Amino acid sequence: MIKFFRKIRQKLLAENRFNKYLLYAFGEIILVVIGILIALQINNWNESNNRREKLNNYLSALKEELNGNIARLERAERRSKRDLEHSVYLIRTFNSDSAKFYTSKDIATFEKGTSPYFKVELFSAVYKDLINAGVLETLKDPTMKRHIFEIERLLENYDEAFLNASKIWDDYLLPYYHQHKNVTGLWDSIEHVSMPKLAFTSDVKAFVNNRDYSNLLASRSRQAANLMNTCKGTITNFEELVKEIESYLEDD
Fold first, then answer.
1. φ and ψ at 194, to 5 degrees?
2. pTM for the full model?
């Protein structure tokens, strides 16, 4: 089309028909501008599609990561509930009317369910990649966008709740056990190496009707409950975000 206008323009110039030459030259310019605008529009459309596709891929991956974290949080919640129930059980047992008859062997039996916290790690790689990719500006749902940005706070809250729960064991209960229990009697062998049988016994008075130990168990109960509730709340938030992502991907 441009070649056609150029030939006409050259012919008009040769015939000294200057007015028509300007008209056709202007027409040629208009065609070029229109072509450029169309090309830009197509390019913008392609870029928009690419950004949307990239966002959708990230959202699909984020949904899987959230579902994986939900399963892990449910496991952490169950563990925290067991710790809460066992700690309350020990408070009742060691402060009951029959507690004064307990022996060192009874203490060891009741204490079998007491153990340190082992952290259930949560995934965050996809979330971090999504934030750093700069594609969230394509997301037009402000509510879902806000919920995505809240993931970091939820992960930090979980880490803090776990740290507080584990500190009761690391900083208080474990040293207390080392001081008042026969720790060597907890295992018959370690990695097939037999443990010697020592005459040490647990200090019954350090556990039965003992204010310090009851307070430690109460603190462990409180932090276990906090961790359990943090897991519950995080699960609820993650489940809601998964539903929002699924709805968004279905409508897109």
1. -65, 140
2. 0.79
Q: Strand pairing partners for 190?
A: 193
- With beta carbons less than 8 A apart as the criterion, state whether 231 and 158 touch: yes
3-state secondary structure of 175: helix
> In this structure, what are the phi and psi dihedrals at residue 209, rounded to the nearest 5 degrees?
50, 45
pLDDT tens-digit readout, 29-52: 676 667 666 656 665 555 566 678
**Residue 116 CB: number of other CB atoms within 10 A?**
10
**Do residues 69 and 241 touch, judged by C-beta distance below 8 A?**
no
Structure tokens belonging to residue 15: 């015939």
pLDDT per position as a tens digit, 48-80:
666 788 899 999 999 999 999 999 999 999 999
DSSP class of 117: -
CA angle 54, 121, 89 (to 5 degrees): 145
